[in-house]
Amino acid sequence: MAFQNIGIGNRDDVFYRYKMPRLITKIEGRGNGMKTNLVNIVDVAKALARPPAYITKFYGCELGAQSKFDEKTNTAIVNGAHETTKLSALLDTFIKKYVQCYGCGNPETGVIVTKGQCISLKCAACGFSSQVDMRDKLTTFILKNPAVKKTKKGLRKAANERIQAGEVVAKQGMKELKKGYKDVKKVGKKKGPSSDEDKSSAKGSVSDDADSSHGEDMVEWQSDTSAQAAQQRVEEQLNEVTSEMVMLSFNKENMDVHNRTFNHDSSDSSCLYEKLLKTFKLALDEGCSPDQFAVQLHALCPRISQEAMDAFFDALFDGVQKGLANEIGRKRVYLRKSITDKYRQVLLLGSIESHYSSRPPEICKEIAISLKMLYDLDILDENVIIAWYRKGLQNRIKVLAKPFVDWVQNAESEED
User: Biased composition, Polar residues: where in the chain (predicted)?
Assistant: First the structure.
């Protein structure tokens, strides 16, 4: 099945992670009985997290034709003969109006019907609430046929499926690019030995061809790794205070000092923790933004360890005793920018467990609330939480977190 990026504005982005199947149509019948069958409308609707009846009705409203979606047979019919290109263009309009967030542009939205009979799109990525134009004809159909409320677990599963599909397509595109580049290198080797001038001219011609092809198979991705370029990138991404903290020295003596200072495999983990804690606190005191803080974390800890995560967590929540969940809500942007994969989620859980282990029993009871806050903010994944709870020995912190873990495993709806 062929996939494409969701949204016409992202059509040429090879690494865009939100994918959907290409619309497939089939014209049936003759004369006045001609109709267009939307063959894979169910798969398209699933990728967009919208009922297929909404898309079918949208086609009917825009084309001025009768349309119907049969839930028993999962078939969508629009009267009349309509070209696939025209229907695909209308589908892009539907995505822009009823799928993509008006704030960030991501398709991670849910349709919400308010008490005042208005329709809004709630974005799970940025939290923005987009108000749909109620003058559109489709809004009447949506108000009369509200979508079945999905569970939070179902929404997460659908989102993960879309992301996984996008990653598969992106990997295939990268394989094709690498394969094309290898073919170019093989062609160059077959030409046999040549002089330095020939090599330089051949290299220049390949570079010119790559520039003219605008991202075709002959493109070679490169980045300047010199000391000057690295320092320039740091200065562009960090402010004046934090850029001085990232020391980029490339002579042998200074590199050895740098490795001894920030080596995560070092036995002196307490020394590493103290150095990172001091650095992170200074950055926060100077008003470091979430993006700059994430860049600094990656620059200092490219292979992040538990000690580095503990320093990050303690710097971010310095001195917090009661009410950690409320503080997590205030610092959620910092966490979202820095906790970017499941490995870091596991380390974050370790830091939280360590945080509550040193607190009195009355404060330790708040761990379930803190975990739920991180779960609701999509910072921690349910599978990571369950795996953390089951791994290792059961201590008093995990015992206090057990009610929330049981809720995550057995919850059937947001209200539960």
Answer: 222-231
69, 54 Cβ separation under 8 angstroms:
no
Q: What value does the mean pLDDT of the chain take?
A: 77
What 408-415 contacts at long range (C-beta under 8 Å, 24+ apart), as own/partner pairs, is 408/375, 408/382, 409/382, 411/151, 411/152, 411/153, 412/151, 412/153, 413/149, 413/151, 413/152, 414/151, 414/152
pLDDT tens column, 359-393: 888 888 889 999 989 988 989 988 889 888 888 77
Say how far apart CA 147 and CA 50 lie, in whole Å: 8
Q: Indicate the range of 78-87, 100-109, 189-198, 309-318 predicted with least confidence.
A: 189-198
Q: Which two tokens stand for residue 272?
A: 């590493």
Give me 324's structure tokens: 């950690």
Q: Are 233 and 243 in contact (CB under 8 A)?
A: no
Q: In the numeric block, which tokens belong to residue 93?
A: 């309009």
Q: Tell me which range, 37-41, 307-311, 385-389, is most confidently predicted by mean pLDDT.
A: 37-41
Structural domains of the chain, with CATH: 3-156 (3.30.30.170), 227-410 (1.25.40.180)
How many residues in total does the chain contain? Answer: 416
Nearest partner of 107 among 97, 118, 119, judged by Cα? 97
Q: Which residues pair with 120 in a beta bridge?
A: 112, 131
pLDDT digits (tens, 9 = 90+) for 261-302: 444 444 455 677 888 888 888 888 888 888 888 887 877 777
